Amino acid sequence: MSQHDIGLIGLAVMGQNLVLNMANHGFSVGVYNRTTATTDEFVGGLKNEPADKVHAGTIDRVKGYHTLEDFVKSLKAPRRIMIMVKAGKPVDAVIDQLEPLLDKGDIIIDGGNSDFVDTNRRDKDLREKGLRFIGTGVSGGEEGALKGPSIMPGGHADAWPFVKDIFQAISAKVGPNNDIPCCEWVGDAGAGHYVKMVHNGIEYGDMQLICEAYFILKHALGLSNEELYQVFKSWNEGELESYLIEITRDIFTVKDGNSGEYLVDKILDTAAQKGTGKWMSQHALDLGVPTTLITEAVYARCLSAQKDARVRASQILEGPKDAKFTGDKQQFIDDVRQALYASKLCSYAQGYVQLDAAAKEFGWKLNNGNIALLWRGGCIIRSAFLGDIKTAFDKSPTLENLLLDDFFKSAVAKAQPSWRRVISTAVQLGLPTPVFSAALSYYDGYRQGRLPANLLQAQRDYFGAHTYERTDKPRGEFFHTDWIRERKLS
């Protein structure tokens, strides 16, 4: 008998918490997992969960199934099935198993961290078979999945009305009355997963920027973890207020249960990655847009992974000798704050430039202001100034670059002296700041009316006859010079 509002496949922690979130909001949910024991353990264990995790009536709204056939039959028409399995081939395998069991108009939702290229393909394939596909980004981790994530759906627009109430009910809420859902339709095909990819790329950048700020404060000023806690606490009370600054503040208070020393100092300095930051950088190159900050953040993780090689190099390679910071300590802490803020603004500016380029490439109609709203709550990059980004695009929906908005232009102008002092000081002390530096280089490059690419084009024409345009001729006219014949011999 058809009874459930929605079904979910894949009962890892994210899947389980999304099920509870839906059921806690009054929706009936059927669940299926390839391993039946996992299904039984999850459903059977609900009675032992605390009331803040499993609300009154939730247990009666969740039912597990041991076969896909019974699971599919239990869903109301049009069937809404959310897949929460590992991205890539596992998603395709589940879709292949579901297809013969579904009717035209049924809806398949991929809520994993899928590559938007796969989502484009799946949307096209399923449309041809009469099924509707949604690829949706879900951000916020395990806690967000349970209490309210940021949800970024895209795909078959006709499917949106059938999942809108569920998705917006379970999403994070923002606004003066805490009633604006961090979930809205993004666009066609892979647009939802593309926006999630950009979110994750910005997350890479934000995290690396915070790490560079920490590294500078620790090694240039010698701040203790107690002092770092106070710095990040104060930063989280101003324009840098954000989830990542908040958790960084908390990290500096945690001690190792065995040694009694601060845990952060016990953690090996090698960072892992799951690929979404890399995907963003790769597609930036395909689109020809300079997403330099996020790409440097990816490379920073790659360099961190070369731990053994770095340890060997540290015994051989030299940097500045006897270099010490000699300036005003409190002023420099504030300089780092402003450099972090300006760099974050550049990160978001680059992210939106890439979104605009992708929208043009794929014919998506993205609402940049709404995308900022999606990220204001529930997700990892939620921060105070996302409201300023929404305001900027509300004022000018076709804004070419966030740095051109009056608010952001003045914020970067104010931070610029500090930004330059921090990077130059780090260089003098031999402290790496790849992402701070990439952000400033992007800003300086973007504000130049003329760059040295004229010489680059002359070089390309010299050795490869690639031609060039001229400043005194209309754009689109190309010229070639026989440089060997025209050169002056010494």
Automatic annotation (TrEMBL):
Pathway where this protein functions: Carbohydrate degradation; pentose phosphate pathway; D-ribulose 5-phosphate from D-glucose 6-phosphate (oxidative stage): step 3/3
Root EC class: oxidoreductase
Residue numbers binding NADP(+): 10-15, 33-35, 85-87, 113
Pfam families: 6PGD (PF00393), NAD_binding_2 (PF03446)
Homology family: Belongs to the 6-phosphogluconate dehydrogenase family.
Subunit structure comment from the entry: Homodimer.
Protein name, entry field: 6-phosphogluconate dehydrogenase, decarboxylating
